[in-house]
Amino acid sequence: MPVSKTLLAASIALSLSTGVAAGASCGNSAAGFDAWKASFAKEAKAAGVGKRGLQALASAKYSAATISADRNQKSFKYSLSKFMQIRGAETIIAQGRKRKAKNPKFYTALEKRFGVPAGVLLAIHGMETGFGGFMGNTSVVSAITTLTYDCRRSNFFKPHAIGALKLVDRGTISGNTRGAKHGELGHTQFLPGNAFKYGVDASGDGRVDLYNLADALASTANFLRKKGWKPGKGYQQGQRNFKVIEQWNAATVYQQAIALMAARIDG
Prior knowledge:
By secondary structure, the protein is mainly alpha-helical. The chain contains 14 helices and two strands; from the N terminus they run ααααααααβααβαααα.
């Protein structure tokens, strides 16, 4: 049903006035970021974020690099074969097999504890950071708060922004910790809210550190198990555990690639 210009103008005016009254709203440029942070700080404090987390929020910078990366994601649009070629699937499989053979007790212990096969964890590790070769160079707090401020997917990233600030409170990360362009951190690129909720101290040093290999892979296995992974069940497309791989990354081509590489690593 067509909307009259008068009604549309009135609606826009009401929306703008409501946004001003309620505090800073989302934006699509750096212009309103500082005002938004001041408003979001109140919400973060109400959600339980403490002094250190709030200080990290205050120091966060608008990340133009993050916005550029978010606007230009292309690889997930490729065919499966093209995607696997570009992401170096054969190299991941070869290195995954070597890593499993080099430290079998470690991966066996993870599977015994969480029920997730080594191949799945190694495929994710290889896909996300080249087995820790590059874990990102963008401020985690700045990236995740920029995405929460950005109007495209504010609601999706908000719990991860809160999670990042709580990780700062906990001492898991600092305001200077570096990760991927979308705020992911560690060996397997956990989004901060997931790191906060599913992080595991597998190294036994009393803290969760996603930049520590043992903690990162145990946390990844814990995430999958808590999302419904059934030990001993299949994980190829159409099988029970494929639905759990879907929880790790929303792109179908990524999910398919992980399942296929994992099977070959374990095969």
